[in-house]
């Protein structure tokens, strides 16, 4: 209805229009309340697992990056192993390096630790301002000290000219000497356990969060200690080697090098054994990584799936770089 008052036209909504407007307001309010109720029921954490690099061995590969993984909880980033290029892989996975909280090195072979220092340094150049705890077998503390000395000129310049915090004060190395809980904060509890990797002191890691449990085997030959610590976990991330393919690889790239062949085969876990381990541990999901050989004619999903599937009937994921699980 239109009315005239003081020379101006006013529009007064009809009764149906007023009723429609009231109904819209009520529905909107109910929607907001429903959203709030849903938010209250949503878990406060969501643990993400991202495979940053899935290659095995120290030589650079075309199709797979060096070994590295990220566990992400409430935007905090925890990295397991730091192969070459790990900082760039974090960025490619759309993770902020400045959110790095802790680094866990399974053992001191170059494909697993080549960018240990660089990871924290590059996170620092990307805005890291809080301390990062790092864990690994000895001599992790000495390695940290030598890395800081190697890069002292660049570090000191950036501290003086760019106003960055003292990097040495942000890296807190801890050397692992035995099995047990090594790290705990508001997001995760991390347990280290020794595995078998020929002459190298090597550890696997178990992550327990509010909504998930994940075990990383690191490099290992078949390990009963791993089965013990992986029992019933949601996800087991396990390395793998194809013995026939490794034999063919050595014959192709370094014929007659029996020491290399023995190391590749004896220091890792064959396909069928990975399946047996996952079955014995009763894991829900098995993720294959650290493929040996990588980047060659035998690095095929069907090969890995067929070999492991002989002993494991659960969910099997053939890992690839930047896969989120």
The number of helices is: 11
pLDDT averaged residue by residue: 89
> In terms of structural class, how would the helical and strand content be classed?
alpha/beta
- Main sheet: strand order: 8-7-6-5-4-3-16
Low-confidence stretches: 1-12, 24-30, 32-43
DSSP E strands, number = 16
CATH second-level architecture of the largest domain:
4-Layer Sandwich
Main sheet: strands, sense, barrel: 7 strands, mixed
The topology string of helices and strands comes to: EEHEEEHEHHEHHEEEEEHEHHHEHEE
Describe the structure.
The termini are far apart. The protein contains eleven helices and 16 strands. The N terminus is likely disordered. Helix 7 packs across helix 10, helix 8 packs antiparallel against helix 9 and helix 10 crosses helix 11. Helices cover 36% and strands 28% of the residues. The protein folds into two domains: 38 residues, no CATH class; 280 residues, Ribonuclease Z/Hydroxyacylglutathione hydrolase-like (Metallo-beta-lactamase, Chain A, 4-Layer Sandwich), CATH 3.60.15.10. By secondary structure, it is α/β, with parallel strands linked by helices. The chain has a seven-stranded mixed beta sheet. The protein has a seven-stranded mixed beta sheet with strand order 9-10-11-12-13-14-15.
């Amino acid at each position: 209805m239109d009315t005239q008052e003081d020379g101006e036209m006013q529009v007064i909504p009809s009764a149906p229009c007023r009723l429609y407007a009231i109904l819209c307001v009520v529905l909107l309010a109910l929607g907001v309340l429903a959203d709030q109720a849903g938010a209250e029921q949503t878990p406060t954490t969501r643990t993400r697992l991202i495979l940053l690099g899935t290659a095995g061995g120290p030589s650079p590969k075309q199709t797979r990056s060096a070994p590295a993984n990220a566990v992400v909880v409430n935007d905090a980033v925890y990295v397991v192993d730091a192969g070459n290029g790990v900082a760039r892989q974090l960025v490619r996975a759309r993770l902020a390096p400045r959110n790095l909280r802790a680094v866990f090195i399974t053992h001191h072979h170059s494909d697993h630790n080549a960018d240990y220092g660089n990871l924290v340094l590059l996170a620092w150049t990307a805005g890291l301002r809080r301390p990062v705890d790092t864990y690994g077998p000895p001599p992790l503390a000495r390695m940290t000290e030598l890395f800081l000395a190697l890069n002292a000129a660049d570090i000191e310049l950036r501290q003086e000219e760019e106003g960055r915090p003292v990097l040495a004060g942000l890296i807190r190395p801890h050397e692992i000497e035995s099995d047990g809980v090594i790290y705990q904060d508001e997001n995760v509890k991390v347990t280290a356990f020794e595995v078998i990797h020929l002459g190298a002191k090597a550890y696997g890691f178990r992550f327990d969060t509010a909504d998930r449990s994940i075990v990383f085997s690191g490099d290992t030959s078949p390990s009963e200690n791993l089965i013990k610590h992986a029992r019933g976990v949601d996800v087991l991330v396990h390395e793998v080697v194809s013995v026939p393919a490794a034999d063919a690889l050595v014959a192709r790239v370094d014929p007659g090098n029996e020491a290399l062949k023995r190391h590749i085969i004896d220091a890792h876990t064959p396909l069928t054994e990975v399946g047996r381990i996952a079955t014995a541990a009763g894991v829900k999901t098995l993720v294959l990584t650290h493929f040996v050989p990588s980047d060659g004619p035998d690095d095929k999903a069907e090969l890995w799936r067929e070999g492991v599937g002989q002993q494991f009937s659960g969910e099997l994921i053939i890992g690839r770089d930047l896969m989120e699980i």
